[in-house]
Amino acid sequence: MIKKLLFDRHHFACRGDVWIADGEYEIRTSEIEKIGPVFVADKPWERCHLNWLTVTEDNGKFRMWYEAFSNPADDFGCRLCYAESDDLLRWEKPNLGICEFEGSKENNIVIDNSLTHGMGFHGHSIYIDPNSPPYARYRCVFLGALLRPEDMSKQGLVSFAYSPDGIHWTHGAPEIPTDYNHMPVTAFGSDTQSCVRWDSEKRKYIGYFRNLERNGCRSIARGESSDGVHWSEPVTVLSPDMYDNLNSDYYNSAATK
Question: Given a cut of 80, is residue 25 above it in pLDDT?
Fold first, then answer.
């Protein structure tokens, strides 16, 4: 049996069969059995909704990091949670004892506002960095917020975290000094899930971020980095054009190799 994590037919605009090619295999969607839902919000810290997730296979186990909201009014009040699976169908949410929620650490939360020094957490991307030392093997890119001193409004900026195991995280980047009022944050924000990875062919980190066009429509922009921390200003690579409806958006980047 070939196991793949796929979208269902609801996400296709076309009719008829869709072919999926994977090396020597070719599968028709008519041969695929839809099973689910396989992951649901069933914890108090998930009572509002679940949001963006990262799934990767690591040493024979599927690992998932996902965002959970308990308060619908606060984008930066999101929490990063962890789950794991052997088959992509049954997911375990282990009690990790790291972050406190409503007086208890019996939960699967691995990053919250307290671990990001009050910057909040939103729109993460997690990747395994082949260039990092073991204590920073896992890297996290996320949107945080700093307060503008002139009016105390929130300024969204992309920030970073690192971990040896994907469970125990440290805010920042080990390559640069820690100053949470300035660095390590980028000079731009991205208020959706940023998608970052190491490109072994280009020998650079590639990131896809949210951008805004002059007409206010959301678009997808691409940036590059030599060290995963200092990024070029993202340049729009996908945006609405004359063939799209007015006020169309490209809301999430969802890029993968």
Answer: no
